[in-house]
Amino acid sequence: MAQVQARFRTDSKRYEIDDIPFSVPAVSEVIDLSKIINKLLETKHVNHKHADFDFLIKGQFLRVPLGKHMELENISTEEVVEIEYVERYNAPQPEECVFHDDWISAVEAQGEWILTGSFDKTARIWTIDGRPLAALSGHTEVVKDVAWIRKSVPSNLLLTASQDQSIILWEWNCENNKVKALHSCRGHAASVESIAVDNSKTKFCSGSWDKMIKIWSTVPNEDEEMTEESENRPRKKQKTEQLGLTRTPMMTLSGHNEAVSSVLWSDTEELCSASWDHTIKIWDVETGAPKCTLTGNKVFNCISYSTLCKRLASGSTDRHIRLWDPRSKDGSLVSLSLTSHNGWVTAVQWSPMNEYQLISGSFDKLVKLWDTRSCKAPLYDMDAHEDRVLCVDWTEMGLLLSGGADNKLFMFRYQTPTTGDGA
């Protein structure tokens, strides 16, 4: 049987073994290598408890037999190959499921609370164990996106965006559980598809079916805000009991030729927008001009930016997830593609804790957990949904969230390895 000379290494002090080459069968797969590491650890530590490991060669996870992987990656079997091992994550387990009266179009977690938006024209606040806290009713059409602005006790600020062309800024008192609409943000001429709050929590941006991106203040005010088009606006304060004061945008960014499907802040004065015109634009907020344009060949449905790895992920109608490094010399080129979905990719979200991991949702009813070191296949598929997946998010408390056209929000428990260095 063909043998491969391998040297194993890990960043985990707990699982270190001797730094010497070992001869292992070329047909070895992940489970076989994991057994070898555990046997070596048992001889070194009497109290070693069995652990499952994943293995990386030159930054890529091993997903086929060792010899086959080396052949595919053109790695010589004549030399000693260095194999890194990390503790393996367990598969995410569905924990809770909550219901809206219609499709769940948006979800965003904040600490111990979850905010959802639905085609039933409401948004709802839940605890992370699925207990309903409050319903936000005020929109006359489908709620397309939601966002937390500020979480504090007792007063919390949040946003809902709707097909009724408006965004409502809400105050939720978590002590008496009362919800109040402070401002109705008006200025878009079509459905508001996406909203994102900047890091300073003082402004947010919105993307719409009207092809425009608008920037607004998040600061509650008893008077009408500074308006971009004040001369065209009625002087009289517009107020309704239900929706609060009318607010108009501080700035409009124009440049897309079709609907804007997704917006986010990538820096203090920089935002990104994805569009049905097959482009992603990165904007300088100070000047209102695009810095660069990333071009695809299909509609972009969603984008997510990782502050950890500084990469942008996009999901498209062609079923692919693409990763971009907009700050690099070749920033307009795709740096990596993740292909496994069989329907439109409707949602992507980077992990807030792990620079390699992201989740995606699709019309194929699946939520997929990815590691960019294993781009040929996802780490795990989560198939709890009975209809199209429309939104996904992470919580910092180890939950993955997904909402869909089956009116359900699923919460998956995702345990990180005890050493924190896992796949």
Query: Fraction of residues in helices?
Result: under 10%
**What structural class do the secondary elements suggest?**
mainly beta
Which descriptor suits the 3D outline? globular
CA radius of gyration is 24 Å
Query: What's the overall average pLDDT, rounded?
Result: 91
**Strand-residue proportion:** over 45%
Question: What would you note in describing this structure?
Answer:
- The chain has 423 residues and is mainly beta.
- It has helices at residues 30-44, 66-72; strands spanning 3-9, 22-25, 53-57, 60-61, 81-87, 93-99, 104-110, 113-118, 122-127, 132-137, 143-150, 155-162, 166-173, 178-186, 192-197, 203-208, 212-217, 239-240, 244-247, 251-254, 260-267, 270-275, 279-284, 289-295, 300-305, 312-316, 320-324, 334-339, 345-350, 357-362, 367-371, 380-382, 389-394, 399-404, 408-413.
- Strand 30 and strand 31 (367-371) form a beta hairpin.
- The model is unreliable at 225-241 (pLDDT under 50).
